[in-house]
Design brief:
3% strand, 288 residues, single chain, 10 helices, two-stranded antiparallel ribbon
């Protein structure tokens, strides 16, 4: 009869819950999709800023640097960093890089020492460690972004900066994917438990290839120069990544923020760039 209750179908046996491995794979695939969804528009905006150049690039780079500094200061809130002094120092470095040159950056850093110390008196609470960490943030983040502006303002600077960014981001992505697929040997468990030697090797090779291939489409850059630039970017990029991971490990956080969704905060995305732009700038000066 149609109204009779159906007996349960036991031919397939009881439904088993998904295994831990299946759950992990699903989570990784979801995370990868989220990363791609955020990365594509972010890269488009970054490259548009580079091509625009001038004050557009300077203002955009300074804004990103301020966000990075904000995330860093938030990590070390208990030691009371001098936020306003740090922001002013970073903005001054970006302006000096665009209007002056690298010879003006040292002067800005020296003046920032004085400004940060004086502004520390205006805080309800201030510590010597907070003052020191503020100066550190200015030199790390501010000088890194300032060198990106210096590089952009050189002859062929827009193309070289895009090469550096492409090598940095391709290497980082390849290291992430390569580590997921083939990673077995931990690179530095005390600083970043998820990074592996296999991922590092794949990332370095991919970064070199990315810069070298980009150089093939730039008739003013020789293959040797592109290869040298690629090697420098590939070797420096993981150092910048581990450098930031050290501070996150100390602060006991996974990401510095949520600006880029699954990619984390601005500092999470620009940690390697803060190193490769400096290295790329001086490498290109040497190769010119």
């Amino acid at each position: 009869m149609s109204g009779a209750p159906r007996s349960p179908d036991r031919s397939r046996g009881p439904r088993r819950p998904p295994s831990d491995a299946a759950v992990a794979r699903k989570k990784k695939n979801s995370d990868l999709g989220a990363r791609v969804a955020v990365a594509i528009p972010a890269l488009a905006v970054a490259f548009a800023m580079v091509w625009a150049g001038g004050w557009w690039f300077t203002a955009g780079a300074a804004a990103l640097a301020i966000v990075c500094a904000h995330e860093f200061f938030r990590m070390y809130e208990p030691i009371h960093p001098v936020r306003m002094g740090g922001y002013l120092g970073i903005i001054a470095l970006c302006i000096a890089a665009h209007l002056g040159g690298r010879q003006h950056l040292a002067l800005v850093v020296v003046i920032t020492f004085l400004i940060v110390f004086l502004l520390s008196f205006a805080q309800v609470k201030t510590t010597a460690v907070g003052v020191a960490m503020t100066i550190f943030a200015v030199t790390w983040i501010g000088l890194g972004v300032a060198h990106a502006i210096l590089l952009r303002d050189l002859e062929h600077g827009a193309d070289v900066l895009i090469d550096v960014l492409a090598g940095t981001f391709v290497g980082d992505t390849a290291a992430y994917l390569g580590g997921r697929a083939f990673g077995r040997t931990k690179l530095s468990p005390a600083i970043s438990p998820n990074k592996t030697v296999e991922g590092l090797i794949i990332g370095i090779a991919s970064a070199i290839a990315a810069v070298w291939i980009a150089g093939l489409y730039q008739d003013w850059m020789t293959g040797t120069d592109a290869l040298i630039l690629g090697v420098v970017v590939a070797l420096v990029s993981p150092i910048g990544d581990l450098f930031e991971s050290f501070f996150k490990r100390e602060a006991q956080i996974k990401d510095t923020g949520t600006l880029f969704g699954a990619h984390g905060g601005a500092l999470d995305r620009l940690d390697a760039v803060l190193f490769t732009t400096v290295a790329g700038y001086y490498t290109w000066l040497w190769l010119r």
